[in-house]
Design brief:
The chain is mainly α. The protein is built from 12 helices and no strands. The N and C termini lie far apart (41 Å).
Protein backbone atom coordinates (compact mmCIF):
# COMPACT_ATOMS: atom_id res chain seq x y z
CA UNK A 1 0.00 0.00 0.00
CA UNK A 2 2.91 2.34 0.74
CA UNK A 3 4.22 1.91 -2.81
CA UNK A 4 0.76 2.70 -4.21
CA UNK A 5 0.50 5.89 -2.15
CA UNK A 6 3.96 7.02 -3.28
CA UNK A 7 3.02 6.23 -6.87
CA UNK A 8 -0.16 8.29 -6.60
CA UNK A 9 1.94 11.31 -5.60
CA UNK A 10 3.32 11.49 -9.15
CA UNK A 11 0.49 9.72 -10.98
CA UNK A 12 -2.36 12.11 -10.05
CA UNK A 13 -0.42 15.35 -10.73
CA UNK A 14 0.71 13.89 -14.06
CA UNK A 15 -2.91 13.35 -15.12
CA UNK A 16 -3.85 16.87 -13.99
CA UNK A 17 -0.95 18.48 -15.88
CA UNK A 18 -1.72 16.50 -19.04
CA UNK A 19 -5.38 17.56 -18.87
CA UNK A 20 -4.31 21.21 -18.68
CA UNK A 21 -1.97 20.71 -21.65
CA UNK A 22 -4.66 18.82 -23.57
CA UNK A 23 -7.14 21.67 -23.18
CA UNK A 24 -4.66 23.92 -24.98
CA UNK A 25 -3.27 21.52 -27.58
CA UNK A 26 -6.47 19.76 -28.67
CA UNK A 27 -8.67 22.86 -28.88
CA UNK A 28 -7.50 23.22 -32.48
CA UNK A 29 -10.67 24.92 -33.71
CA UNK A 30 -10.75 27.26 -30.67
CA UNK A 31 -14.15 25.89 -29.65
CA UNK A 32 -13.72 26.87 -26.02
CA UNK A 33 -11.13 29.61 -26.32
CA UNK A 34 -13.47 32.14 -24.72
CA UNK A 35 -15.08 29.74 -22.24
CA UNK A 36 -14.41 31.04 -18.72
CA UNK A 37 -14.36 29.01 -15.51
CA UNK A 38 -18.01 29.78 -14.80
CA UNK A 39 -19.17 28.56 -18.21
CA UNK A 40 -16.93 25.51 -17.97
CA UNK A 41 -18.46 24.64 -14.60
CA UNK A 42 -21.97 25.08 -16.02
CA UNK A 43 -21.17 22.67 -18.84
CA UNK A 44 -19.86 20.08 -16.39
CA UNK A 45 -23.06 20.52 -14.39
CA UNK A 46 -25.16 20.22 -17.55
CA UNK A 47 -23.60 16.88 -18.44
CA UNK A 48 -23.13 15.56 -14.91
CA UNK A 49 -25.40 12.59 -15.62
CA UNK A 50 -22.92 11.20 -18.13
CA UNK A 51 -20.17 11.61 -15.54
CA UNK A 52 -22.34 9.77 -13.01
CA UNK A 53 -22.81 6.91 -15.49
CA UNK A 54 -19.03 6.59 -15.80
CA UNK A 55 -18.65 6.67 -12.01
CA UNK A 56 -21.12 3.77 -11.77
CA UNK A 57 -18.84 1.81 -14.09
CA UNK A 58 -15.81 2.56 -11.88
CA UNK A 59 -17.79 1.22 -8.91
CA UNK A 60 -18.65 -1.88 -10.95
CA UNK A 61 -14.97 -2.47 -11.72
CA UNK A 62 -14.10 -2.15 -8.04
CA UNK A 63 -16.83 -4.65 -7.12
CA UNK A 64 -15.37 -7.03 -9.71
CA UNK A 65 -11.96 -6.63 -8.05
CA UNK A 66 -13.45 -7.47 -4.65
CA UNK A 67 -15.16 -10.56 -6.07
CA UNK A 68 -11.83 -11.68 -7.54
CA UNK A 69 -10.09 -11.17 -4.19
CA UNK A 70 -12.75 -12.80 -2.02
CA UNK A 71 -13.82 -15.63 -4.32
CA UNK A 72 -10.76 -16.76 -6.32
CA UNK A 73 -12.56 -19.91 -7.44
CA UNK A 74 -13.24 -19.27 -11.10
CA UNK A 75 -11.37 -21.36 -13.69
CA UNK A 76 -8.23 -20.08 -15.40
CA UNK A 77 -8.05 -20.40 -19.18
CA UNK A 78 -4.52 -19.15 -19.73
CA UNK A 79 -3.40 -22.56 -20.99
CA UNK A 80 -5.67 -22.13 -24.03
CA UNK A 81 -3.94 -18.91 -25.01
CA UNK A 82 -0.49 -20.37 -24.47
CA UNK A 83 -1.37 -23.44 -26.55
CA UNK A 84 -2.63 -21.26 -29.41
CA UNK A 85 0.09 -18.61 -29.62
CA UNK A 86 2.93 -19.57 -27.27
CA UNK A 87 5.23 -16.77 -26.13
CA UNK A 88 7.73 -16.53 -28.99
CA UNK A 89 6.85 -12.95 -30.01
CA UNK A 90 6.96 -11.71 -26.42
CA UNK A 91 10.33 -13.36 -25.76
CA UNK A 92 11.74 -11.94 -29.00
CA UNK A 93 10.72 -8.39 -28.04
CA UNK A 94 12.02 -8.69 -24.48
CA UNK A 95 15.36 -10.19 -25.49
CA UNK A 96 16.17 -7.90 -28.43
CA UNK A 97 14.80 -4.67 -26.99
CA UNK A 98 16.06 -5.11 -23.44
CA UNK A 99 16.68 -1.62 -22.13
CA UNK A 100 16.08 -0.19 -18.65
CA UNK A 101 15.04 3.23 -19.95
CA UNK A 102 12.60 1.70 -22.45
CA UNK A 103 11.05 -0.48 -19.74
CA UNK A 104 10.41 2.48 -17.44
CA UNK A 105 9.24 4.74 -20.26
CA UNK A 106 6.69 2.21 -21.52
CA UNK A 107 5.59 1.38 -17.96
CA UNK A 108 4.84 5.02 -17.16
CA UNK A 109 3.21 5.49 -20.57
CA UNK A 110 0.99 2.44 -19.99
CA UNK A 111 -0.02 3.58 -16.51
CA UNK A 112 -0.68 7.22 -17.39
CA UNK A 113 -2.01 7.17 -20.97
CA UNK A 114 -5.02 4.95 -20.38
CA UNK A 115 -6.22 6.83 -17.30
CA UNK A 116 -5.58 10.14 -19.04
CA UNK A 117 -7.68 9.46 -22.13
CA UNK A 118 -10.50 7.89 -20.09
CA UNK A 119 -10.73 11.04 -17.95
CA UNK A 120 -9.81 13.68 -20.53
CA UNK A 121 -11.90 12.51 -23.50
CA UNK A 122 -15.32 13.00 -21.82
CA UNK A 123 -14.05 16.25 -20.29
CA UNK A 124 -12.93 17.47 -23.72
CA UNK A 125 -16.37 17.01 -25.26
CA UNK A 126 -18.11 18.41 -22.19
CA UNK A 127 -16.09 21.61 -22.59
CA UNK A 128 -16.87 21.60 -26.32
CA UNK A 129 -20.59 21.27 -25.49
CA UNK A 130 -20.72 18.33 -27.93
CA UNK A 131 -23.40 16.05 -26.48
CA UNK A 132 -23.57 13.68 -29.47
CA UNK A 133 -19.90 12.73 -29.27
CA UNK A 134 -20.08 12.69 -25.47
CA UNK A 135 -22.93 10.18 -25.72
CA UNK A 136 -20.97 8.01 -28.12
CA UNK A 137 -17.84 7.79 -25.98
CA UNK A 138 -19.73 7.44 -22.68
CA UNK A 139 -22.06 4.71 -23.91
CA UNK A 140 -19.17 2.93 -25.65
CA UNK A 141 -17.16 2.84 -22.40
CA UNK A 142 -20.18 1.55 -20.49
CA UNK A 143 -20.81 -1.19 -23.08
CA UNK A 144 -17.14 -2.15 -22.96
CA UNK A 145 -17.29 -2.73 -19.24
CA UNK A 146 -20.65 -4.46 -19.36
CA UNK A 147 -18.88 -7.12 -21.41
CA UNK A 148 -15.43 -6.94 -19.79
CA UNK A 149 -16.54 -7.42 -16.18
CA UNK A 150 -18.28 -10.82 -16.73
CA UNK A 151 -15.28 -11.98 -18.79
CA UNK A 152 -12.88 -10.99 -16.02
CA UNK A 153 -14.90 -12.80 -13.37
CA UNK A 154 -15.71 -16.02 -15.22
CA UNK A 155 -12.95 -16.25 -17.87
CA UNK A 156 -9.68 -15.69 -16.05
CA UNK A 157 -6.58 -15.30 -18.23
CA UNK A 158 -3.28 -14.61 -16.45
CA UNK A 159 -0.59 -12.18 -17.58
CA UNK A 160 2.01 -13.63 -19.92
CA UNK A 161 4.82 -13.32 -17.37
CA UNK A 162 2.97 -15.72 -15.03
CA UNK A 163 2.33 -18.62 -17.41
CA UNK A 164 3.60 -21.26 -17.68
CA UNK A 165 5.26 -21.38 -14.23
CA UNK A 166 8.72 -21.78 -15.78
CA UNK A 167 8.18 -19.12 -18.47
CA UNK A 168 11.13 -17.07 -19.68
CA UNK A 169 8.88 -14.02 -20.14
CA UNK A 170 9.93 -11.39 -17.62
CA UNK A 171 7.39 -9.40 -15.56
CA UNK A 172 8.99 -6.12 -16.65
CA UNK A 173 6.12 -3.99 -15.37
CA UNK A 174 5.39 -5.93 -12.18
CA UNK A 175 9.05 -6.15 -11.13
CA UNK A 176 8.70 -2.54 -10.03
CA UNK A 177 6.63 -2.67 -6.82
CA UNK A 178 5.34 0.87 -7.26
CA UNK A 179 4.03 0.19 -10.77
CA UNK A 180 2.54 -3.11 -9.63
CA UNK A 181 0.67 -1.57 -6.72
CA UNK A 182 -0.73 1.20 -8.91
CA UNK A 183 -2.05 -1.43 -11.33
CA UNK A 184 -3.60 -3.48 -8.53
CA UNK A 185 -5.63 -0.51 -7.31
CA UNK A 186 -8.07 -1.18 -10.18
CA UNK A 187 -6.93 -4.31 -12.05
CA UNK A 188 -6.11 -7.91 -11.28
CA UNK A 189 -3.45 -10.04 -12.93
CA UNK A 190 -6.11 -12.34 -14.40
CA UNK A 191 -8.14 -9.53 -16.04
CA UNK A 192 -6.65 -10.02 -19.48
CA UNK A 193 -9.16 -11.12 -22.10
CA UNK A 194 -10.35 -9.10 -23.88
CA UNK A 195 -7.90 -6.29 -23.20
CA UNK A 196 -9.86 -3.34 -21.84
CA UNK A 197 -6.74 -1.22 -22.21
CA UNK A 198 -7.13 -1.74 -25.96
CA UNK A 199 -10.91 -1.93 -26.35
CA UNK A 200 -11.69 1.34 -24.59
CA UNK A 201 -9.02 3.49 -26.31
CA UNK A 202 -10.06 1.95 -29.63
CA UNK A 203 -13.72 2.85 -28.99
CA UNK A 204 -12.68 6.40 -28.11
CA UNK A 205 -10.55 6.57 -31.25
CA UNK A 206 -13.42 5.40 -33.46
CA UNK A 207 -15.86 7.88 -31.92
CA UNK A 208 -13.41 10.75 -32.31
CA UNK A 209 -12.29 9.71 -35.80
CA UNK A 210 -15.77 9.18 -37.22
CA UNK A 211 -17.77 11.84 -35.41
CA UNK A 212 -15.43 14.84 -35.09
CA UNK A 213 -12.97 16.94 -37.08
CA UNK A 214 -10.32 17.06 -34.34
CA UNK A 215 -7.30 15.97 -36.39
CA UNK A 216 -4.77 16.29 -33.56
CA UNK A 217 -6.82 14.26 -31.11
CA UNK A 218 -7.56 11.61 -33.74
CA UNK A 219 -3.83 11.17 -34.36
CA UNK A 220 -3.10 11.23 -30.63
CA UNK A 221 -5.67 8.51 -29.83
CA UNK A 222 -4.45 6.38 -32.75
CA UNK A 223 -0.89 6.58 -31.41
CA UNK A 224 -2.08 5.76 -27.89
CA UNK A 225 -3.80 2.58 -29.13
CA UNK A 226 -0.68 1.53 -31.06
CA UNK A 227 1.79 2.24 -28.24
CA UNK A 228 -0.38 0.63 -25.58
CA UNK A 229 -0.64 -2.50 -27.75
CA UNK A 230 3.15 -2.66 -28.04
CA UNK A 231 3.69 -1.86 -24.34
CA UNK A 232 1.37 -4.53 -22.96
CA UNK A 233 3.06 -7.21 -25.05
CA UNK A 234 6.63 -6.09 -24.37
CA UNK A 235 6.11 -5.61 -20.62
CA UNK A 236 4.85 -9.17 -20.14
CA UNK A 237 1.18 -8.38 -19.56
CA UNK A 238 -1.09 -9.35 -22.47
CA UNK A 239 -1.30 -12.07 -25.07
CA UNK A 240 -1.72 -11.13 -28.73
CA UNK A 241 -5.19 -12.72 -28.54
CA UNK A 242 -6.08 -10.26 -25.76
CA UNK A 243 -5.29 -7.39 -28.12
CA UNK A 244 -7.28 -8.89 -31.00
CA UNK A 245 -10.21 -9.44 -28.64
CA UNK A 246 -9.85 -5.86 -27.40
CA UNK A 247 -9.96 -4.42 -30.91
CA UNK A 248 -13.06 -6.45 -31.75
CA UNK A 249 -14.77 -5.42 -28.51
CA UNK A 250 -13.84 -1.78 -29.05
CA UNK A 251 -15.33 -1.81 -32.55
CA UNK A 252 -18.48 -3.55 -31.32
CA UNK A 253 -18.89 -1.11 -28.42
CA UNK A 254 -18.60 1.86 -30.78
CA UNK A 255 -21.22 0.33 -33.09
CA UNK A 256 -23.56 -0.50 -30.21
CA UNK A 257 -23.19 2.98 -28.69
CA UNK A 258 -24.33 4.50 -31.97
CA UNK A 259 -27.08 2.00 -32.72
CA UNK A 260 -30.45 3.78 -32.40
CA UNK A 261 -32.19 1.06 -30.39
CA UNK A 262 -29.30 0.52 -27.99
CA UNK A 263 -28.64 4.24 -27.64
CA UNK A 264 -32.31 4.86 -26.79
CA UNK A 265 -31.95 2.48 -23.83
CA UNK A 266 -29.07 4.51 -22.41
CA UNK A 267 -30.87 7.76 -23.23
CA UNK A 268 -33.77 6.60 -21.05
CA UNK A 269 -31.35 5.83 -18.24
CA UNK A 270 -29.85 9.32 -18.55
CA UNK A 271 -33.38 10.76 -18.41
CA UNK A 272 -34.00 8.69 -15.27
CA UNK A 273 -30.88 10.17 -13.66
CA UNK A 274 -31.97 13.68 -14.64
CA UNK A 275 -35.47 13.20 -13.27
CA UNK A 276 -34.13 11.93 -9.95
CA UNK A 277 -31.43 14.55 -9.61
CA UNK A 278 -31.49 16.88 -6.64
CA UNK A 279 -30.47 19.75 -8.90
CA UNK A 280 -32.69 21.88 -11.08
Amino acid sequence: MYDALVGLLWFVPSIAILIAIGIIVFDEDKKFKNVDWSEGFNRVKKYRHYILLLIIIVIGVKIENIIQDVLPIFPNFTYLFYNIEGNGIILFLQQYLKNHFLINMLSVFYLVSFSYIVVFTPFLFILRDDEETLKSITYAMVINYMILIPFYIFFNVSVTSHYPPDTLVKPLLYSNHQYRELILLMDRLTDNFPSGHISIPFSLFLSTYLLTKLKRYKIFLGLVVAFIAFSIVYLGIHWILDIIGGLLLGAFSYWAANNKKIRSFFDRFICFLKNHSNYK
